[in-house]
Request: fold
Amino acid sequence: MTRPWFALALYAVYMALAFGWRSIRQRRATGSTGFRGISGPPGSLPWLGGVLFALAMLLGVAAPVAELAGWIGPLVEPGHLVVGLGAVATVAGILGTLWSQGAMGASWRIGVSDAERTSLVTGGPFAVVRNPIFSCMMLAALGIVLILPNAAALASFVALVVAIELQVRFVEEPYLLRTHGDAYAAYCAKVGRFLPGIGTGDQPRSP
Reply:
């Protein structure tokens, strides 16, 4: 299997499990798919985060397809070791995403709704970092870049990182602070945002 086909297969499995299968499970358990859409008015930072997230997903598919079609080529030719590391990172990111989604239980959402009050999940992977799903998504996206180092894959990774930063800082953290108050602030003081121990002093923005 060539690198583009390998990357496309991994990406398809990831999307099918992390979004399709997870949404089906959520609907069966709660009656809702968990999708809440893009937050904020057009042009706002929360809205921009949602748009960049969608763009990152599209570029993730486009990267292997464009290389298979011959429209773009690799920026560098990765060796077998780099491709192997990319595969390990991608699989670890997929498994970590699924584990973290499962740990959220009925509180799992894509986006937020101010009309809802979800539980504050602090166990399992959430005891290590505050946003393990996003951490694992970035790890998986980085793995794809190592396997398929072309411009579209790199743009997808950059768009995803920026989208996640905007979503977390301007949508999810303010929502959780509004919903859980001091309990969430205390949790943020103890647990890093994306990596263990990093960002514990960076308190969420007030609503």
